[in-house]
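User: I'll paste a sequence; please echo it back and then give the predicted structure.

Assistant: Echoing your sequence first, then the prediction.
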Amino acid sequence: MAVDHITINDVGPRDGLQNQPKLLSKEQRLSLITALVDAKVPEIEVGAFVSPKAVPAMAGTAELFAGLANSTSLFSALIPNMKGFELAMSAQVPVMSLVVAASNTMNLKNIRMSTEDSLRVSKDVLNVAREQGANVQAYVATAWACPFEGKISADSVFSVTEQLLQAGASHIVIADTIGAANPLEVNQLMEAMASRFDFAQLSCHFHDTRAMGLANVYAAITAGIRKFDASIAGLGGCPFAPGASGNVATEDVVMMVEQMGFSTGIDMALLVKAADLAIKLTGTAKGGNAKPWIENYYLN
């Protein structure tokens, strides 16, 4: 990864849509993903192989992958366990994502497993993935703060990350799940992470709950991170963070890093159209904070 290039993984079609009150049809979800592909977004989280009863917004994810053949973007999907891995393998998913929270209480509340048990399940999946040559990455959730335990120690993040990498995870995404981190904390943790692990295997995932999402992206960049999750039009939210406004908006992140001199390879004019589509389809997405300026600059 070139130091002057930043890779964006748009998680709107999964992380963004799963918390929306309006359920989109598979055709609507496919249209949003296609709009992101057209905008040359390099990586896109398409959906999740989870129970449709538990997360109805993600029903039909395998069918979405079937309709996305021969794309220029790298697609991924969330898998919660071995069953999810098997379903994703059947759908020929290029990249699969496991999630383990650094907070024990978050794991217990979210998936009814302790951190130790969650790691065991993830290691089992990673072992099978390695045998089958599958690409499985892992998210370390609640890396800075937990809604139940408060601040999370860096040692907890180091421990979970090390165990997942040793088990065969191809990449680690450090996630501020509830949007509680501040730029100083982000810089400190990611500098420490980059000193312990290969920074090319690390990326960050920020929410804009407290309006610090973009500042946190900048703080991670100063620590050497060059890959970020973002969500088109700021889609998202977190059921454990009242008032959460969603993930940091893709259009805001791309605008900022490109003005800083980094390349992304993304077509901003078409990205704005994808944001407009997300707003139209959901009726709740507001678009990035800089959307009016971006539209004026790129579309006029």
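The domain at 7-299 is CATH 3.20.20.70 (TIM Barrel). The longest strand covers residues 95-101.
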